[in-house]
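Last lecture ended with a question: if I hand you only a sequence, what can you say about the shape of the protein? Today we answer it with a concrete record. The protein is Type II secretion system protein K. Below, first the input exactly as provided, then the predicted structure, then a couple of comments.
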Amino acid sequence: MAARRQRGAALLMVLVVLAMLAGGLAWLVEDGRRQVDDVRLLHQRVQVRAMEQAGLAYASQALRDPGWRASPLFWQALRGQPLDYDFGAGKAQLRVVDQHTCFNVNALLGEDGERAERQLRHLLGDDMAAERLVDGLADWLDSDSDARLQGAESAQYLRQQPPRLAANQPMVDSSELNLLLEQDASRQARYPMLCALPFTTGWRLNANALGLEHLPLLEALYEGRFSRSLLSRIVTGRPAAGYVDAGALRQALGAVDDETFARLSEGLLLNSGHFLLQLSFEEAGRTLRSQFRVEALGVVQWHARVPAQQVRVLGREPAISL
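The predicted structure:
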């Protein structure tokens, strides 16, 4: 009887040991997988950083080289056409977004702030949501503490969770739209026509970067004073290699008088200095995306063939793994 009990206890001990070993092996396997994934992710991030530098160098060269500006491919890229590249076991995509194809919210702080506000209301429409956004933006940016009817100042923001202050200064990045009362993480994505450029003077649109989808912006820019058919000719009459100068733009517009052309050209430019450089890298089923804010210095706004003298990076959004 005692021997039988000893054998039973021994068998139980063996089973316990086997269970512990099995659990330990499973943990070791899982830990090993995690370490392999970490190494792969580190390898990919190192590779991405190298490709980011290559993408920045490529974009900088394109913006500074006058030869590139004679090619229709250059202007297609500046209108947002993605450039795809294959490398080893993966692929990369580079996309340039001209930021003179959106409404600069910091224009609300400029000398023509009242006009900019009218343009913004024209763009957003005449409803309560638009009213709240316009008033909220104005209060977020201005330096006073007087809240508008549909806006909010620091006193209201301090009562939120988490508490915060109104910026009371020009917007640095359009992601600040998400912080307006009420805080909404999807607001920036819902208003892609709004952007934040580092100046408060009147906003202009790049006639060489616009598409027909930007007609609402053109209508808002001129506060509805020009017909859609005339404004659409800015896009449809554009040569493949873009408008070289003001003369080329006027020719595309057809028979317009001097006053009309002067008013049209007041809100346009042909050579931009502010861009978003968006990069994505896909390898082994994993995608990493990053974005840079880039400024081209020394461009001549009404001479599209004059290249940038210098290109500098203003900021970088961290790489996002998908």
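Comments.
1. The chain has a mean pLDDT of 85.
2. The chain is about 45% helix and 15% strand.
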